[in-house]
């Protein structure tokens, strides 16, 4: 097998030598830091001091419950939202307001605000060379405002409706006076804006009120004229007179009909009683007659007298006969009086009937009149609605006009902001801070010097050392020893004592790793006929290849995880069975070796029977892994030739792990050779001790 010439000379950084070089130059580092700090101290001491002061405004409504307009709700306009507060910040920084303050303090006469007034020689040379624009070409007012804006900072305090106004100046008194003046100018600006708004409102409302007054009069006149022309008289409850009379006649008609029905019923009952000779004492109309009551009393008295005389006189006695004749005459009088009452009831019923007929006629007439009035009321209500709308609009305009005029005339225009923190004259300058500047210069100089020294050592190569396992001598040819003949007795291949190294026909793990690297193999299949202990060969080869700087992945296909347990410990992790069963992804099943840079895919925790149902996916999985890694080493355990056939692809090396070349090893080798796997390599872990506790002292 031909080998490739490797010129890779991987190196590591010698941290000890690197930091030792920095420790040797500590005096130089300290000297530079002291010099830089001294320069920073001198520059900070010579710098012009600047003072800063701050004024704070709270944006809120200044209306009280006593001065709030009637049409304004107590909660309306009380607080501005975030956009409203930011808009007020823009108002404060407006050109008009800043120009007003600049004119008040006469900034144009101060060299601090006029760049053209105190130009240094260096600045003039830059202007002459064309490297800087001439400040004198800019109008003086713009120069002052530009310098003013550079020294001014207006911002909204986060999560609040507070606006902070900061100003810095060489003069501490000016630094305190300017933000206060800006705040006062802003409040006056807000009041002037309200005054202008109220003045504009009164000027607009006055002619509108005059026009509305004329329209209201005209609308009310149309209502009165239409009501008069349509004979729409108003009765009680603000309803039409015809409608009210119709309701009253309906009530009267109902009452008349009830009275007529009652009179007819009473007359009929009295008539039946007289016809049938029934006693009339049970009828209320008969009993209520005074004459009948007296006749009944006389009848009772005569009957009592007849009864008294009957005790001493006979029935044919003239006196008794006279009393009985009087009693009969009284009965006739009662009957005659009842007939009179009957005629009275009949007359009452007839009169009620006539009254009912008259009411019905009147009711029909009023129905027609009410229908006409209803049609007229539709137009009347439209005219009244128009008049009412004009009247309400006029009243609202009058109310607003009076409010606006009173505020304008009374000069009560509160701004929707107040100053709750005025600027005071600062005592200490905010720039320069000598101690922080000197400290920062000292720390920065030390850091920069240290970085410079480290970079110099790295670029010079003095802090580099060859990486362990990363340098290979070029090899022209690796001569593979001939395997032991198949007919050789197994006893001749056995060792009498402890293995001191590879036997004849075998390679050590290190030699097998060099063979894979030199041959450019992309996949190596390890077959271990002797079981779990022989899997140590695959582990050691994988680690040696990883130490050489290649990306190596070991896939454990043994039943009990003989290859992955020494590399990952006893923890049960997801692996190849989980990947085949679809329970995990590639990133979930690839783990790092505890003792090298090799990556490992263990057996996994999924059900092996479920995973074997998807074993057809194994070739695709191996191809994907081979594309991602330089070398993929597969520990197949005591697998046969048919079992590993699906794992073989172009660039695949098949190796047989051996500890003691017994008959099982030779039989497995012969079986693989018979199935087309020629030129097999026997690999033994020369320094094998215990696969569960790998010796990494050499690494």
Description:
The structure is a single chain. This protein is α/β, with parallel strands linked by helices. It has four domains: about 10-45 and about 430-470, no CATH class; about 50-200 and about 415-420, Bacterial polysaccharide co-polymerase-like (2-Layer Sandwich); about 235-410, no CATH class; about 490-685, P-loop containing nucleotide triphosphate hydrolases (Rossmann fold, 3-Layer(aba) Sandwich), CATH 3.40.50. The protein has 22 helices and 14 strands. It has helices spanning about 15-25, 25-45, 80-90, 95-105, 120-130, 140-150, 170-230, 240-275, 285, 290-310, 320-410, 435-460, 490-495, 510-520, 535-545, 565-570, 575-580, 585-590, 610, 620-630, 640-645, 665-675, and strands at about 10-15, 50-60, 150-155, 160-170, 415-420, 465, 505-510, 525, 550-555, 590, 600, 630-635, 650-655, 680-685. It has an eight-stranded mixed sheet, with helices on both faces. Strands 3-4-2-5 form a four-stranded antiparallel sheet. Strands 1-6 form a two-stranded antiparallel ribbon.
| Gap between N and C termini | 27 Å
Mean pLDDT: 77
Q: How many structural units, i.e. domains?
A: 4
Helix content: 40-55%
Largest sheet, strands/sense/barrel: 8 strands, mixed
Structural class: alpha/beta
Rg calculated over all Cα atoms = 62 Å
Q: How are the strands of the biggest sheet laid out side by side?
A: 7-14-13-8-12-9-11-10
DSSP summary, beta strand count: 14
Number of alpha- plus pi-helical segments? 22
Name of the CATH superfamily of the largest domain: P-loop containing nucleotide triphosphate hydrolases
CATH topology of the largest domain: Rossmann fold
Note the beta-strand portion: 5-15%
Q: Globular, elongated, flat, extended or rod-shaped: what is the shape?
A: flat
CATH architecture of the largest domain: 3-Layer(aba) Sandwich
CATH hierarchy, class of the largest domain: Alpha Beta
Low-confidence stretches are 1-10, 466-501, 688-699
